[in-house]
Amino acid sequence: MEELRDIKPYIETGEALYWSVIGFVILLLIGTLIWIALIIKRWAENREKNMRKVYFENLKSIDWNNPKQSAYDISKYGRLLASDSRSKEIFSQLESMLIAYKYKKKVNDIDVDTVNHYNLFMQVLDGTI
Is residue 1 one of the residues assigned to a domain? Predict the structure, then answer.
């Protein structure tokens, strides 16, 4: 009978091959985790920007017929939107004007000075959003 020549004997693989495969898998997992973390971070930043737009739209659609609720809404959304020093300063002045319309059972209509300060605050916010 003739001996087969195309079958080769087993070659021993060294331990270095196993460690290099394990290292490659670990690097692949770390890279995947970093990639997922970056995607989640970008999603959170976009969501925050979108919420700022929603707050700004709510602030733009204030109902001036109900001065008490208007004062509370301006305070709520203004506090969430004031981010830089200029807008925080204008908001603190506006908030001190709005105290006259809060915490009372009956309030007067909002005066022109407060509305003008509100409009100034909205212009500053419009530049940041």
Answer: no
Residues 71 and 102: beta-carbon distance below 8 Å? yes
Residues 6+ apart with CB under 8 A from 117: 90, 93, 94, 97
Dihedral class, residue 33 (left if φ above 0, else alpha if ψ from -120 to 50, else beta): alpha
Q: Is residue 3 part of a domain?
A: no
Structure-token pair, residue 23: 């290292």
Q: How far apart are CA 57 and CA 111, in angstroms?
A: 22
CA 123: distance to chain centroid?
21
**Domain tally, the chain:** 1
pLDDT of residue 1: 60
- pLDDT digits over 66-125, tens only? 999 999 999 999 999 998 899 999 999 999 999 999 988 888 898 999 999 999 999 998
